[in-house]
Amino acid sequence: MDTSQADYQNLLTELIKKQIVILGPDIAVLKARNVSGLTVSDDGTVTQINGNPQELLNQLVEQYMALSGLIVKKAMEPLLSKYPTVKINTP
Length: 91
Prior knowledge:
The protein has helices at about 5-25, 25-35, 55-80, and strands at about 40, 45-50. With about 90 residues, it is mainly alpha-helical. The protein has a two-stranded antiparallel ribbon with strand order 1-2. A hairpin with a 5-residue loop joins β1 and β2 (about 45-50).
């Protein structure tokens, strides 16, 4: 069963919103907007995905991990448990 685009969009939005709490809205949204292929509103909602959603998810996690490493990894664990078909490649 393939993970739907909507699942990725929801997961990406939840990840950004969690990072808003940790990093603040300006930095969290700015980092998300650095990922080419994601369109992100000011409140952190992913409004559009252009490209491979798995690759975009990995790029977004890399953006956040560059700032706060293990904190991001720990924040991702409960989110990923909600989307068991989504896999993430982290170092």
